[in-house]
Amino acid sequence: MNEKFWYLKSCDLFERLTSEQIEQVEISGVRQNSLIYLPSDRSDSVLLLTSGRVKIYHITAEGKQAVLAFIDPGKLAVLESGQREEFAETMQASMLVKIPSHVIQRLMEAYPGVSLGITRLMGLRRRRIERRLKALFRSNRERLVHLLLELVEKYGRPTEQGLLIGIKLSHQDLPASSAAHGKP
Question: CATH says 2-179 is which class?
Fold first, then answer.
C-alpha cells in the first residue's frame, strides 16, 4: 500500500485518493518494447506512467507506424470509454499505475480540481493534435523544424555546444517521418 500511495501522491490529480481507492489501483513493471494496449482493447482505466517512456501510435493503411504522442513520467492516458483506437508501447523499461475508471469518475464528482485537471490534460492533447494536423500542410523542411522545436521544448537542455534533445528516437519514432510522406 505504501508504494501505491507514494506513486499516486506524486501526481497532483490523485493526492485525494482514499485508502480504499488506493487498494483498487494496480502497479506493474513493463519491459522495453512491450505493448501496453492494442486498438481492440477496452478502455476501462486510466494509466499513470511513473517511470520510463511510452509512445502512442497507430498503423497507417500502408502498414507504417504513425506516432501520435510520447508519454513521460507523471503523465496519464486520459479516460475514454469504449475501445482504444491506438497502440501504446514502452520505449524503455517502465512502471505503470492502472486506476479503474469508476475510481476516477468518483474523484471527478467529489473534487472539482480533479475534473479541472483532466480537462486541462484533454485540452493540451487537443492542441498538440491540432498543431500536428496543421503541419501536414507545410513543406518537409517546415515540418522538420516544427518537430525539432517541439522536441527542444519538451526534452531540450542547454549544453556548451548548444541545445541537446535528451530523447533517443529511431526514424520510425519520429512523427515527422510519417507526416513528411503525407500521413498523419
Answer: mainly beta
